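Hey,

Quick one before I head out. I ran the complex with NAP overnight. Inputs first:
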Amino acid sequence: MTSRPSLSQEVALITGASRGIGRAIATSLANSGRFIYINYQSSEKAAMTTLEAVKKVGSDGALLGFDVTDQQAAESAIAGVMKDKGRIDILVNNAGISDDMLMVWMKSENWHRVIDTNLTGFYNVTKPVVKIMLSKRHGRIINITSASGQMGQAGQVNYSASKAGLIGATMALSREIAKRNITVNAVAPGFIETDMTKSLPKDQIARTVPAGRLGKPEEVAAAVTFLCSPEAGYITGQVLGINGGIC
Ligand SMILES: NC(=O)c1ccc[n+]([C@@H]2O[C@H](COP(=O)([O-])OP(=O)(O)OC[C@H]3O[C@@H](n4cnc5c(N)ncnc54)[C@H](OP(=O)(O)O)[C@@H]3O)[C@@H](O)[C@H]2O)c1
């Protein structure tokens, strides 16, 4: 095994960490003392609340606002992290959107907005981070995909395609960089209670889930934190479903 820094020396970058699952991941990773970069697109106030949560568990962090669809903005934000901290040990590609409608109604802009954020956003952020991790010979990359990317969901052709693409990218990238002690895994939540699902009929959905309920952001975060741990060093290229049994 190659050496890795103590957890309290690690630096984590979480995209879309102002709310929902991203905020829970930020807080969970901060529990072991890691420094957390909290990315967001526009919700600065919500991102500040995440930072407060990180500090409350005894760690520290910083806001890092940029749009993951903007390649230059992502690269310059990551260059700023390297100037300040000199390392990125963990990257969680969590930023994501949905724009649901049946394929027959889907306009080109509905397709591209979702693919650009969920899939090209992964490319824009991961490419510069992989370069850093390769030079350090150590790293953990977790991509937040979805059960929709594993089984397909009617009304979500764009979203399902973006999340299935992320699974393919996870598997391919894991093979490219495993020898450098960098693991790449995907976590695939089912229905989780966040802003993204707030307009859905919860009782109706719960009846379709074997566990009989929606999941909590903290339940996704626990899986991510495990995959980032030293004990998970031999797990790479995998997709872990957190879905109450729906697939
Ligand atoms: N909730 C579910 O049931 C569920 C199920 C499966 C998978 N997922 C996936 O889990 C991830 C988090 O979902 P969530 O439910 O926590 O969503 P959410 O509550 O809607 O939060 C989305 C986060 O992504 C950020 N974001 C969106 N577009 C961005 C962009 N272009 N650049 C940077 N940040 C951007 C948002 O930032 P702002 O606050 O600044 O807008 C926010 O922090 C997503 O990838 C989603 O697809 C969710």
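Residues 15-22, 39-43, 46, 67-69, 94-97, 117, 121, 144, 146, 189, 191-192, 194-197 surround NAP (CB under 6 Å).

Talk tomorrow,
K.
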